[in-house]
UniProtKB/TrEMBL annotation, chain A:
Protein name: Na+/H+ antiporter subunit G
InterPro entries, sorted: PhaG_MnhG_YufB
Keyword Transmembrane helix: yes
Organism whose genome encodes this protein: Yoonia rhodophyticola
Residue ranges of the TM segments: 6-30, 72-90
Alphabetic keyword roster: Membrane, Transmembrane, Transmembrane helix
Organism phylogeny: Bacteria, Pseudomonadati, Pseudomonadota, Alphaproteobacteria, Rhodobacterales
UniProtKB/TrEMBL annotation, chain B:
Lineage per the UniProt record: Bacteria, Pseudomonadati, Pseudomonadota, Alphaproteobacteria, Rhodobacterales
Keywords, alphabetical: Antiport, Cell membrane, Ion transport, Membrane, Transmembrane, Transmembrane helix, Transport
Protein name: K+/H+ antiporter subunit F
Source species of the chain: Yoonia rhodophyticola
Gene Ontology cellular-component terms listed: plasma membrane
InterPro entries: MrpF/PhaF-like
Molecular function GO labels: sodium:proton antiporter activity
Location relative to the cell: Cell membrane
Transmembrane feature ranges: 6-28, 40-59, 65-89
Family indicated by similarity: Belongs to the CPA3 antiporters (TC 2.A.63) subunit F family.
Main location: membrane
Membrane topology: Multi-pass membrane protein
Amino acid sequence: MTFTLIGTIATAVFLLIGASFTLVAAIGLLKLNDGMTRLHAPTKAGTVGVGALLLASMTHSHTLGEGSMHELLIMAFLFVTAPISANFIAKVNIHRRSCQTPPSPPRDDMWSTLDVPEADREFVEAEQ
Amino acid sequence: MSFANAFMDWALIIAFGVVALSQIMSMIRLVIGPDTGDRILALDTMVINAIGLIILLGVAQGTRIYFEASMIIAMLGFVSTVAYARFVLRGDIIE
């Protein structure tokens, strides 16, 4: 009786936490005014938002009696892949020069994503 | 007990509405996004929100059959984000 009560309330609280973090991420994605700044907001939806929703799903299935831990797989997958896709999107921003270019690296001439091979220089200059 | 069930029902309704609203907001960013990076980011966020919506559907119906769907969408979303970004970066996906 009390276990079901606590489980139901915990599920509802997790649902509300996840939904609010998802909303915060969407507001940040819509309102921030720079490409690199916008990159920062949706990471909250990817980790805490969906993480709390998955926790709610786990709590709910345990409350109903047939417990399942499968959701941990999705959580682990999202936690592993979120930094990789964020890194790729940041590289796209640098590559398209839609942000302030970072200061030149200490050792090489320029960042590798901005480096154009010798043979392709004329195409890039013709494009710009 | 009835209080907990009512709280749960309201939380589900609110969560559905809020996640759908954030899906619409990231779709606005997908349409107006000034650069390619913003569009990739908006698509990635929409995939994340779709996973959230599917999980919410599973909680609402009390079943576990949506687990595989959300897992597949998570994998597909990561691969498509990386493919789109690589296409912009290198002009090719698999060299």
